[in-house]
Amino acid sequence: MPNELKTFLTRAQVVDAVAADFGQYGPQPELFRRIAPLVLGTDFKTGAAGGEEQAWVRRGGGYTPVGDTALGFYLIHILETADPDEKMLAWIAELVFEVAAGPGTDGGRTGVWIENQMKGFACKGCGNCCTQLDTVCTAKDVEAWKTLGRHDILEWVREEAGPGGKRAYRIWVDPRTGERADSCPFLGTWPGSASFFCTIQEVKPRVCREYPFTKKHAGQTGCPGFFK
After folding, report:
1. Stretch (H or E) spanning 191
2. What is the separation of C-alpha 199 from the centre of its chain, rounded to a whole number of angstroms?
3. Residues 204-228: pLDDT tens digits?
4. Whose CA, among 62, 94, 200, 216, lies 20 to 30 Å from 142?
5. Side-chain-facing half-sphere of 2: CA atoms under 13 Å
6. What pTM, to 2 d.p., does this model score?
7. Segments of the chain assigned E as strands
8. Secondary structure letter of residue 181 according to DSSP
9. Distance (Å, rounded) from C-alpha 125 to C-alpha 223?
């Protein structure tokens, strides 16, 4: 596959991306139990406990049952400290991101090439992302709207304190009530159709331009763009 259709991540970046996935979606029992044998080898097994299948991790002299959340944290800890090779990380990337991945190099760096995760996406105009998802925008979005004089958009933006004292921006907040709007105020509908469209398409926030980011995220958030 040509490199322009793939993204290169160093080993550390792959681990960071996997950790971000685990944090975003919370416990993913089936996924964790597929990854665990790759990372832990014979130090991992599954078995019945209390009438249900349980994950077990060997520590010291024996196996200890581990909950799904704890297993996710433990897998990330091992990946961060064990320095796994590129082939293993490529296998893990395929499982986590649900796209093709393979070990490789880029500019002398070793890591993993991951297939473009938006390949095959086509917006169906369902409006789900504009009505169901809590949304933020970037400082660059805000600056662009100020430059363009788009006060109609800016009045729906609320500035908040972000991590480390940085500014964060939440959209779409009703300027009259201070509450999150039921849907994006710039969502249009085609007459006589159940299809929606964006009325600020050329200047919409980065998060909207890049959504759904990945096929997995589409499935997790109800976007049909990758599916028939």
Report:
1. none
2. 26
3. 999 999 898 888 888 888 899 987 6
4. 216
5. 3
6. 0.71
7. 6-10, 44-49, 52-59, 62-66, 101-106, 109-115, 135-137, 158-161, 167-171, 187-189, 196-198
8. P
9. 10
